[in-house]
Design a protein that fits this description.
Blueprint (H helix, E strand, L loop, with lengths): L3 E3 L12 E3 L11 E3 L16 H10 L2 H8 L5 E3 L4 H11 L1 H4 L3 H13 L5 H16 L4 H17 L7 H17 L2 E5 L4 E7 L12 H4 L7 E8 L2 E8 L18 H12 L7 E4 L8 E5 L21 H14 L20
Helix pairs in contact: 1-3, 1-5, 3-5, 3-7, 5-6, 6-7, 6-8, 10-11
């Protein structure tokens, strides 16, 4: 069995061939093996899947001769970041006898981590337990990886094998789902977008802030616009999911809206606003960026926006219209100019 290594950031893996598990690949040696769905991967075509955990299982499914051929010369299993899909994939590769009986559940847990998709409450709880471990860990990263593998192995057998950090997250998920169920919903499947608009009647109502696993949990949309309209104005989050970032095989990537241009447009319509609140955005090159109205302290991949959300003066319908325009402008059209070739009659149907 290959040893497990954690490297800091996307590079610094050294010159010797390794098995890159999940993650990105700047500075990686040209040899070795990629088992990952991140952009820039060199995963063998026969193994490509939507999640790195699925890729790891596909590798296990190969006969021993082919596995040996693909890993020849490799000196380690390498992770360059800590997340749920990476830990699941590493468990598959390092402890296959533990992982094999729980293949479907591991796929579900990985999807919760990388796609914010909730295929089961148990999978969501395991994802939250792994994330909670990462937040609490204060030691070396390789120690965190080994602790996470032990925790995940225990969770596959007993879903209450983790500290109680996941319980509050699961309770909040149920509340978030109920809040979304009470909002108006536009299911814009053709735009890969879901839009929720809640009416907040109470004068002191907080901004409408359900979590990512609630509004992206069905896996139906790669984008979500979540708004709440109340006496103090409109709260809004526009989230672009990871399915337009990772190298997927099940669906083509949707074009990503220009969040910087959209924020500039909305700020122009907003006018001067008291305090530090305005339309803000994260870099659209990231795995799952978002645009929101409020303060600047919204960290990447935030489940809830919390205190970062503020109240816009803009009407929800106006916000929605400009978001839809941004999505349309980014839409990837088929490579067809509708011009006839030679004596072709394009109207002959």
């Amino acid at each position: 069995m290959l040893p497990i290594r954690y490297v800091a950031g996307p590079s610094t893996v050294g010159e010797r061939p390794v098995v890159m598990v999940d993650g990105s690949f700047g500075g990686a040696p040209s040899g070795g093996l990629h088992l990952a769905h991140w952009p820039g991967n060199r995963t063998p075509p026969e193994l490509r899947r939507d999640l790195s955990t699925e890729i790891a299982f596909a590798f296990l499914d190969l006969d021993a001769t082919r596995r040996e051929e693909l890993t020849r010369g490799c000196e380690a299993l390498v992770l360059n970041h800590y997340d749920t899909d990476g830990v699941c994939a590493l468990l598959v590769l390092s402890r296959p006898e533990v992982a094999r009986p729980h293949r479907s559940l591991l796929h579900e847990i990985a999807a919760s981590g990388d796609f914010f998709e909730v295929r089961s409450d148990r999978a969501f709880a395991a994802d939250m337990a792994l994330q909670d471990l990462g937040r609490r860990w204060s030691g070396e990263r390789e120690g965190l990886i080994l602790a996470a593998l032990d925790l995940l192995a225990a969770l596959l057998v007993d879903d209450r094998a983790a500290p109680e950090g996941w319980c509050a997250a699961l309770d909040r998920l149920h509340l978030d789902r109920a809040a979304l169920a009470g909002a108006a919903f536009d299911d814009l499947v053709y735009m890969d977008l879901g839009v929720w608009s809640a009416t907040l009647a109470a004068p002191d109502a907080p901004p409408f802030d359900p979590g990512r696993h609630a509004f992206l949990g069905s896996g139906r949309h790669d984008r979500a616009l979540v708004m709440g309209s109340g006496p103090r104005g409109t709260s809004a989050r526009f989230v672009v999911g990871t399915r337009s970032f990772f190298d997927l095989v099940s669906r083509p990537a949707s074009g990503r809206p220009d969040l910087a241009a959209l924020a500039e447009l909305l700020n122009g319509l907003e006018g001067d606003h008291p305090g530090s609140h305005c339309w803000r955005h994260q870099p659209e090159s990231g795995a799952t960026p978002e645009l929101w109205f409020g303060s600047e302290d919204l960290h990447l991949y935030a489940e809830h926006a919390g205190d970062a959300l503020g109240w816009s003066r803009l009407d929800p319908l106006e916000i929605k219209r400009h978001v839809l325009d941004a999505v349309r402008n980014a839409w990837v059209l088929p490579d067809d100019d509708d011009e006839a070739d030679g004596d072709e009659d394009i109207f002959d149907v």
